[in-house]
């Protein structure tokens, strides 16, 4: 299920979402001594990252990771890891922990197995999940064009999986729907008129393999808060 929150300006959205996420992370740290958040790449979340980075939180007790990552060098302009380090792991958040999805030169099965063990033991379930959405309805690296889409959406899938999209560059590592749907607080952060139309199309249909974001919008046990600004 979902709820849509609309904002007149992206700056207002960024500040509102940062305030909401900061309160959730603070409550999690106070409750259990730690908190975890997975974020997404792209240009849309930069303002939110910068707003959140300025919040005075117990960052040493908070672990940040990515919903997915391209298997590229972390110095690449296409690296989500670089994006997060340059925009979120700054200011007050410089002391946060970061769980790297991209480790090593090759996405070998052994690397994937090791990452799954650590993610399950130390990270999941996430306290906060910030999703984005592509024009094709993909989210994280759950691409409708990939051969792995059934595995991506399976309820019994491993937490982290390899994905090779046919309509986008690079091999990816991504958290599966099974892992992401465990998040206690799920947000879909989007902007622009075209993304609002994609959202409307996703809401109107049922087939999740056609538009994977539907899995988060329509699952009865997932409450997805949609944050949209023009």
Strand content: 15-25%
Number of separate structural domains = 1
The CATH class turns out to be Alpha Beta
Average pLDDT confidence is 97
Summarize the helices and strands and which ones pair or pack:
Elements: E1 2-7, H1 10-32, E2 35-39, H2 46-53, E3 62-66, E4 68-70, H3 80-87, E5 97-98, H4 109-123, E6 128-131, H5 149-153, E7 160-163, E8 172-175, H6 177-180, E9 186-191, H7 193-204, H8 213-218, E10 224-229
Parallel strand pairs: 1-10, 2-3, 2-6, 3-5, 6-9, 9-10
Antiparallel strand pairs: 4-8, 7-8
How would you explain this protein's 3D organization?
By secondary structure, the chain is an alpha/beta fold. It has one domain (2-229): 3-Layer(aba) Sandwich (Rossmann fold), CATH 3.40.50. It has eight helices and ten strands. The protein has helices spanning 10-32, 46-53, 80-87, 109-123, 149-153, 177-180, 193-204, 213-218; strands spanning 2-7, 35-39, 62-66, 68-70, 97-98, 128-131, 160-163, 172-175, 186-191, 224-229. The strands form two sheets. It has a seven-stranded parallel sheet, sandwiched between helices. A three-stranded antiparallel sheet has the order 4-8-7. β2, α2 and β3 form a beta-alpha-beta unit.
Search tags:
single chain, 230 residues, alpha/beta, Rossmann fold, seven-stranded parallel sheet, three-stranded antiparallel sheet, 10 strands, globular
Concise account of the structure shown:
With 230 residues, this protein is an alpha/beta fold. It has eight helices and ten strands. Helices cover 35% and strands 20% of the residues.
């Amino acid at each position: 299920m979902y709820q849509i929150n609309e904002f007149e300006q992206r700056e207002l959205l960024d500040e509102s979402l940062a305030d909401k996420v900061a309160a959730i992370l603070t409550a999690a740290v106070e409750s259990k001594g730690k908190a975890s958040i997975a974020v997404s790449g792209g240009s849309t979340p930069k303002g939110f990252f910068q707003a959140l980075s300025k919040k005075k939180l117990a960052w040493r007790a908070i672990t940040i990771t990515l919903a997915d990552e391209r298997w590229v060098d972390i110095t690449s302009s296409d690296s989500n890891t670089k994006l997060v380090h340059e925009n979120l792991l700054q200011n007050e958040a410089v002391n946060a922990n970061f769980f790297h999805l991209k480790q090593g030169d090759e996405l070998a099965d052994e690397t994937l197995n090791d990452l799954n063990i650590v993610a399950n033991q130390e990270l999941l379930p996430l306290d906060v999940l910030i999703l984005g959405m592509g024009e094709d309805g993909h989210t994280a690296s759950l691409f409708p064009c990939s051969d792995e889409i059934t595995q991506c959406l399976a309820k019994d899938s491993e937490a982290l999986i390899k994905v090779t999209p046919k309509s986008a560059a690079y091999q990816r590592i991504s958290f599966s729907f099974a892992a992401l749907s465990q998040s206690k607080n799920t947000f879909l952060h989007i902007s622009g008129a075209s993304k609002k139309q994609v959202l409307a199309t996703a809401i109107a249909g049922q087939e999740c393999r056609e538009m994977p974001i539907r899995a988060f919008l329509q699952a009865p046990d997932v409450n997805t808060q949609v944050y949209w600004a023009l």
